[in-house]
Amino acid sequence: MVILFLHQNFPGQFAHLAPALAKAGHRVFALTSRYEKRHMWRGVDVIAYRYDAPSEQKLHPWTTTVNKAIDRGATVFRACEALKGRGLNPDVIVAHSGWGEAMFLRHVWPDARIGVFCEFSYRAEGADIGFDPEFDGKPELGRGPRVEMKNLAMRLQLESADAGISPTHWQADMHPPELRRKITVAFDGIDTDDIAPDPSAQLVLPGHGTFTRNDEVVTFVNRNLEPYRGFHVFMRALPDLLRRRPGAKFLIVGDDGVSYGSAPKDGGTWRQKMVAELGSRIAPQDWNRVHFTGRIGRDDFTRLLQVSRVHVYLTYPFVLSWSLVEAMSVGCAIVASDTAPVREVIDQDKTGRLFDFFDGPRMVDLVDALLDDSQARAALGQAARARVLRDYDLKRVCLPQQFRWIEGLASGDQSRPSATLN
Predict the structure, then answer these.
(1) How far apart are CA 42 and CA 146, in angstroms?
(2) What pLDDT, on the 0 to 100 scale, is given for residue 421?
(3) Cα(76)–Cα(80) distance, rounded to whole angstroms?
(4) What is the CATH number of the domain that holds 387?
(5) What Gene3D superfamilies is this protein classified in (predicted)?
(6) Burial of 137 (C-beta count, 10 Å sphere; 0-12/13-18/19+)
(7) Cα 246 to Cα 22: distance, rounded to the nearest angstrom
């Protein structure tokens, strides 16, 4: 079978599935704008296309997202026409719908079976938009129509596709009911053989020091340090955490860019903004126990989780971070915000402890209590890992689910049992 993946930042969510299909004997291609040259990656023939964002155009502001998607979709359409002219005719196409790459594929390969990765569908209320009044609390005339247009490109792609796949039930359920029926739920997968507890782990971070399980380490991870992932809530709780835990070390992982939402309106980064806001609330000697590591490599990230005594995770009601499930796989004691889709993986007092996203003092109490209770930490960590082994293990659970989805997509038999996670 010939399979084509489309993802502007390939491999992205297809990092496990695409090479596994290649290893299984399929001819696997990927089309992406991430690279400049064609190359082979783990058995996948990665083909580059060039995308230049549209220059300033006079558009209604509600059409900004769909215009970008159409523009990128048109670029991909031309690239796919060229590939078809050179003999590429995929049996199955799998595309992330977030950037419009699958918008016009039916016009290139009308007989191909098309599946889309359905990461999120926005809502005017009840999810991330309007969740945090500090940054989005003002009434907005026309918010509903704006969000409807924001979703339009993703909706059109799912409508024209034969099937969809989503990593969590909550993310799938965000889609309109008439389209939700197309979506199978199957998580991306965690390699629990590699991302596992290691009592002897040692993390060496140049410029920060060496950390082991003998240290009282509290970890907090974002791809980028920003409000969507609760960075402001964590930072405002940091002075109390430092005061209560005079021997603790706080490792804060993440870059200073923006993955979701927007940068501070007055300029700078969210880290700069929060450090300035805290000002004299944190003494210079206590800042020495706070380590902003930036982004770290895969092996160091696993070791970071392995030495963590308590891992703190916050998010708006938005897509679930891989880092949370990886922390569970390592057996971390987790303190997390009581937001969807966190509740899908964290059961209160079983696989972690939850608090209201905006209740920083409660977060401090939970972290403080767990740092004093080694038995509770061990019990929570063991239960968290058991949950991942049961429902989110890459090789034994998630890849088989994804393979069944691919097989159903290729055969047109979407009546195959869909992946369900209890």
Answers:
(1) 41
(2) 30
(3) 6
(4) 3.40.50.2000
(5) Glycogen Phosphorylase B (3.40.50.2000)
(6) exposed
(7) 51
